[in-house]
Design a protein that fits this description.
The protein has 181 residues and is α/β, with parallel strands linked by helices. It has one domain. It is 49% helix and 10% strand. Helix 4 packs across helix 8. It is globular.
């Protein structure tokens, strides 16, 4: 990265937004458990793929993370890496894809789509020419998404600050024990 930047280029990466929670908490738990790598670059695209989270929670998380994202990636529309032994992710229907594009556009001027070949295979690319970008509304589970993020932040903070948590708990127990007659 130093050489790339030294040559005058910018570096971008594609991250799961869970790393934002980890950064806030000062934790590395998710990196260790899930094998994620937190690399700081000039531009960070958050992968808010609702094909990973089917149902109403995915759009709510997209909306929840949207205001903090530099850029947003939506998908998957199919295609992408074919890794032997790993299942292919389900792809978004046109309605789901269009909803996610509108939600992402509400928060970001740059939207990345995974993947171009999936858009071509399913006929989505031609539908984007006259696409109506208006109409993004907060999804119905936005408060649940915020609550899940808060719970994750507390868990990650506790994992990173276990000494403080243990010391504080012990101090509380000892202070209550000393008040008894």
């Amino acid at each position: 990265m130093e050489r790339i930047c030294g040559d005058g280029w910018t570096v971008e990466n594609y991250q799961f937004p869970l790393l934002a929670e980890e950064r806030r908490a000062g934790s590395t738990l998710l990196q260790r458990l899930l094998g994620l790598v937190d690399v700081r670059t000039d531009r960070e695209v958050w992968m808010l793929y609702n094909s990973f989270l089917p149902g109403p929670l995915g759009p709510a998380l997209l909306w929840s993370y949207g205001p903090e994202a530099q850029d947003i990636a939506v998908g998957t529309t199919g295609g992408g890496p074919d890794v032997p032994g790993h299942p292919q992710m389900p792809y978004l229907s046109w309605e789901q894809f269009a909803r996610d594009l509108r939600l992402a556009r509400h928060w970001s001027d740059t939207i990345v789509v995974h993947s171009l070949e999936g858009c071509v295979w399913h006929g989505y690319l031609s539908r984007l020419r006259g696409f109506d970008w208006s109409g993004a509304q907060p999804p119905r589970l936005v408060s649940l998404a915020g609550g899940l993020r808060a719970a994750l932040q507390v868990t990650l903070w506790a994992s990173a600050h276990s000494f403080l948590l243990t010391t504080g708990t012990l101090a509380l127990i000892l202070s209550r024990g000393s008040r008894r007659p």
